[in-house]
Amino acid sequence: MAKNAVSYLYVLLLSLSILFACGQTERTEFGKLYPFFTAGTWGYMDKAGNTIIEPQFDGADGFSEGLAVVMVGSKWGYINKLGKIVIEPQFEGSGKFSQGSLVSLLTTSGCT
User: Fold this and answer.
1) Where does the chain have alpha helices with state H?
2) Which of 32, 56, 59, 82 has the largest CB neighbor count within 10 A?
């Protein structure tokens, strides 16, 4: 019976550690970028206030899972931490990545 209890405890601890690992968010400050607004455009700076991505966007949000949603003209797209557009601005509205997924609004008829 003691052997079964140890086995159950092991499985329980393993399951809990997997569950908590899946729910972890990026907590490190290293490499974190913050949107900032100057002269009518948005860019990104590091914690020390150094400009990392030059202001060039009409709208910007924080990074999530390595990507940030930015507005170019009236459309939203995504950039990486180097400022490179990885998903072309084509969305009427868009949100942050969460667990590898995102929600965006794409209209094709000209009406939202």
Assistant:
1) 2-22
2) 59
